[in-house]
Amino acid sequence: MDDSGLPLPAVRCLSKEEASAYLGIGVTLLSELDIPFVKLGRRCVYDRLDLDAWLDEYKQRGWARKEKSLWLKKQESTGARIHDSGGLIQPSLTVSAYAEALKPKIASKPKPM
Description:
Blueprint: E1 13-14, H1 16-23, H2 27-32, E2 38-40, E3 43-47, H3 48-60, H4 63-66, H5 75-78, H6 95-102
Antiparallel strand pairs: 1-3, 2-3
């Protein structure tokens, strides 16, 4: 029989190098990102469906959707006392108190005798 007319199915399991090329990242970053893989004997292969699902989930929890600020703040660790400025906000001086603080101090000179 001649099977040349039938196309071969796409390969579903990818090696580490193929998976990193599929995602467009380096092999080292692929290892650091904790992407799910399947262990077949001593080999680790990456399922295309798992890679697609992981990438969709990764996009949903990205910076643009979760974080409002560039700096992370944990309310439980700060007790909601630290504001966005990074420290406690001191009450500002009024305009008159500020002007008084800027006035030069003129001391009276003692008169010569």
